[in-house]
Amino acid sequence: MSDERRYVTDEEKLAVAAEQARIGAREGGIPIGAALFDREGRLLGAGHNRRVQHDDASVHGETDAFRAAGRQRSYRDTTMATTLSPCWYCSGLVRQFGIGRVVVGEDVNFMGGQDWLAEHGTEVVVLEDPDLIAMMADYIRVNPEVWNEDIGEE
Asked: Contact at 8 Å (CB) between 60 and 89?
């Protein structure tokens, strides 16, 4: 998935991820979206959490975007925009492949491994987008069992 448009600001990158979260919500899934961009801000791949839709615990937003981007020679100069602080699973993906930057839409409703990423050299930018905070809070309130399953809580 390559797009010649350049997404220059972190807010523009996050807007792509946010649209993916809204798509996931319309499909009846968990509203978490992500998008991977190259150094120039071109979209490499976008995706959303599809755990519910695919009955597959491994399809988180970041992994879906990563898969949609296809193979890259290096991920050092890429940016992953994600609507929610990445869980440990997705933080591991960022570390494993050396993704250089992560733009987080919000960490109010969930704090994943973003501090760990920053401690190990990943640039992490947190935007605390009020619309994303509200969307996730509403989802968690209405779907606590699905949410707790998603984050590995009982």
From this structure: yes
Q: Is 62 a residue of the active site? A: yes
Residue 54 to residues 48, 104, 117: CA-CA distances in angstroms? 11, 24, 28
pLDDT for res 61: 98
| Cβ atoms of residues 46 and 1 within 8 Å | yes
Q: Which of 12, 27, 62, 123 is catalytic?
A: 62
Q: Which residues are CB-neighbours of 28 under 8 A, at least 6 positions away?
A: 52, 53
Please state the rounded mean pLDDT for residues 16-42: 97
Band of residue 118 on the pLDDT scale cut at 50, 70, 90:
very high
102: helix, strand or coil: strand
C-alpha–C-alpha distance, residues 7 and 66, integer Å: 17
Contacts of residue 104, Cβ cutoff 8 Å, sequence gap at least 6: 82, 84, 85, 86, 114, 124, 125, 126, 127
Query: Would you call 21 helix, strand, or coil by DSSP?
Result: helix
| Reported pTM | 0.95
**Tens digits of residue pLDDT in 75-111:** 999 999 999 999 999 999 999 999 999 999 999 999 9
